[in-house]
Design goal:
Radius of gyration: 21 Å
Order of helices and strands: EEHEEEHHEEEHHEEEEHEEHEEEHE
CATH topology of the largest domain: D-amino Acid Aminotransferase, Chain A, domain 2
Number of helices: 8
Largest sheet: 8 strands, antiparallel
Shape: globular
CATH superfamily of the largest domain: D-amino Acid Aminotransferase, subunit A, domain 2
Distance between the termini: 15 Å
Number of domains: 2
Bound molecules: pyridoxal-5'-phosphate
Number of strands: 18
């Protein structure tokens, strides 16, 4: 079922930015979607309004206790000039799981997808067509409720904003490279029983300190280890991690501290379809480093909506460098990137039925 929403159009549309110099989150479109929740009434009054600042009481609980969830998606301009979304149902279901963990009332999957489609259609002409660029979609939920008490709010706002963004791989959209990754020994991202599987604000602010540390040592991202034993590999920055040892591809099982990425799931589905053996299990850092040393670690990469596939060229651990595949982009990493990016942008026929939703 598809919902429709009333639209209040802006009277002052903005000039479109230079599609060759978009950055990530520098520009926002003319409109946004907003829907409210009130206890006893449920989600109501979904509507499209001109993009603009929110009026929030300084005592709004979200500002103090961080009760919020969000999603991240991309819309691509396909070669026919239409717009592709990628597996929006997965994001809708994940938001429900995030909400459940943060005590925020769920949003119906059809309602979520209808809202995303409605705002993307409204500001469709903001979707850039330069290769690699996209319209990044940021749905999020906050509470405007005024209270100092630590308890779930009774009022929420579900908002969707859109920002045209540059290609992740600057220069050439298909120019992947092996990034240098800092194995983080001190700080942790998420613990089992916590909120690691949810997309919620606090998970990201707590990781910034490690990212800053990684940069100091010339690394682009952090490899997170598990919180309890600092023994198992979990995620890379804000992406899921994959390691190919021998002929098997490993990625962490969804233990509770792992974010269930849509790109992670898509990667596993594609690899299995291609006949590659994939194991979802906890993988020890020691196994990875040993495999890097003896040459059986053939490839490693990270997956996420922003980068699609980001090959890992080197791990830095206790001052020692562990190069992977001579820091070159692996065959499987490249094939996954070409297939996923090709499907998302419509350059290639979708290999999986129902994954691409064209507006
Ligand atoms: C969003 C996110 C991912 C990637 O999920 P996708 O759905 O593939 O974009 C991975 N890890 C973390 C911590 C994330 O927040």
């Amino acid at each position: 079922m598809e919902y429709t929403f009333p639209v209040t159009r802006t009277t002052t549309p903005k000039a479109k930015p230079d599609p060759n110099n978009l950055g990530f989150g520098k520009y926002y479109t003319d409109h946004m979607f907003i829907m409210e929740y009130d206890e006893g009434q449920g989600w109501h009054d979904g509507r499209i309004v001109p993009y603009g600042p929110l009026s929030l009481d300084p005592a709004a609980t979200t500002l103090h206790y961080g009760q919020m969830t969000f999603e991240g998606m991309k819309a691509y301009r396909n070669p026919q000039g239409r717009i592709n979304l990628f597996r929006p149902d997965m994001n809708a279901k994940r938001l429900q799981k995030s909400n459940e963990r943060l005590c925020i009332p769920p949003i119906d999957v059809d309602l979520y997808i209808s809202a995303v489609k409605a705002i993307v259609r409204e500001d469709a002409d903001w979707t850039p067509s330069v290769p690699g660029t996209s319209l990044y979609i940021r749905p999020f939920i906050i509470s405007p409720e005024v209270s100092m008490a630590v308890h779930p709010a009774t009022k929420y706002w579900f908002i969707i904003i859109l920002t045209p963004v540059a290609a992740y791989y600057a220069g050439n959209e298909s120019e992947l490279h092996g990034s240098h990754i800092w194995v983080e020994e001190e700080f942790i991202r998420a613990a089992v029983g916590g909120t690691g599987f949810a997309k919620c604000g606090g998970n990201y602010s707590c990781g910034m300190i490690a990212a800053a540390e990684a940069k100091k040592y010339g690394c682009e991202e952090v490899l997170w280890l598990d919180a309890k034993e600092h023994k198992y590999v979990e995620e890379v920055g804000t992406s899921n991690a994959f390691f190919m040892i021998g002929d098997t591809v490993y990625t962490s099982s969804l233990t509770g501290s792992i974010l269930p990425g849509v790109t992670r799931d898509s990667t596993i589905c594609l690899l299995r379809k291609w006949g590659v053996n994939v194991e979802e299990r906890r993988l020890e850092l020691a196994e990875v480093l040993e495999a890097a040393k003896n040459g059986t670690l053939k490839e490693a990469w990270a997956t996420g909506t922003a980068c699609v596939i980001s090959p890992i060229g080197l791990l830095k651990y206790k001052g020692e460098d562990f190069p992977i595949n001579n820091e070159k982009v692996g065959v499987l990493s490249q094939k996954l990137y070409d297939t996923l990016y090709g499907m998302q942008t419509g350059i290639r026929e979708p290999e999986m039925e129902g994954w691409v939703v064209t507006l």
